[in-house]
Amino acid sequence: MNHAFSFMLAAALLAPATTLAQDTTTSAQVKRGEYLVTTGLCHDCHTPLIQGPDGPAPDMKRALSGHPQEIVVKAPAIVPEPWTGAMSPTLTTWSGPWGVSFTANLTPDPETGVLRDFTEQQFIQTMRTGRHQGQGRRILPPMPWPWIGKMTDDDLKAVFAYLRQIPAVKNKVPDPIPPK
């Protein structure tokens, strides 16, 4: 057997093992991210609710796609004292002293997903600082970034890895509406 063939055969046999180890690590990280997104209640706000036979239920066809673009909100809700906030029936729009906030599209849609331009590090910084991409506009209530930001780097990386591989949903979420 010539040496070039032996080298190519050895390389071919070793490559799948390396890829398999990387795939296993990535798969474990994505599974951890799915667990954290699910138990961290991300779907409660980022997955619109629809009315079903048993009342409101998550619309998993639009999982983590944020406020539905077809539901137009033009102004903050007028909330009587002593209340300080209101929410839409989909749980994707919140109104309070900060104005109106819309839950973001966390899917990897290349046109409308909010994380489309984020690096892993920017995602971590966003969760730590409460600022878009770690330095932009403030993330508005009710996003619990102060608590999510206490996750470990590994957990935040797992959440990011999971969000990068979920089905993309084209859904243009509106910009926040400032208070009056």
Report on the structure:
With 180 residues, the chain is α+β, with helices and mostly antiparallel strands. The protein has one domain (35-165). The chain is built from five helices and five strands; from the N terminus they run ααβββββααα. The protein has helices spanning 3-39, 42-46, 120-129, 145-148, 153-165, and strands at 49-52, 55-58, 86-87, 93-96, 99-102. The strands form two sheets. Strands 3-4-5 form a three-stranded antiparallel beta sheet, with no helix packed on it. Strands 1-2 form a two-stranded antiparallel sheet. Strand 1 (49-52) and strand 2 form a beta hairpin. The longest helix has 37 residues, at 3-39. The protein is globular. The relative contact order is 0.17. The model is unreliable at 4-13 (pLDDT under 50).
User: What structural class is derived from the secondary structure elements?
Assistant: alpha+beta
The succession of helices and strands, N to C, reads HHEEEEEHHH
Average per-residue pLDDT, rounded, comes to: 88
Strand count, sense and closure of the main sheet?
Answer: 3 strands, antiparallel
Strand order of the largest sheet: 3-4-5
User: What best-fitting shape do the alpha-carbon axes yield?
Assistant: globular
Question: Radius of gyration, rounded?
Answer: 21 Å
Primary descriptors:
180 residues, alpha+beta, two-stranded antiparallel sheet, 5 helices, 38% helix
Can I get a quick summary?
The chain has 180 residues and is an alpha+beta fold.
Summarize the topology.
Elements: H1 3-39, H2 42-46, E1 49-52, E2 55-58, E3 86-87, E4 93-96, E5 99-102, H3 120-129, H4 145-148, H5 153-165
Helix pairs in contact: 1-5, 3-5
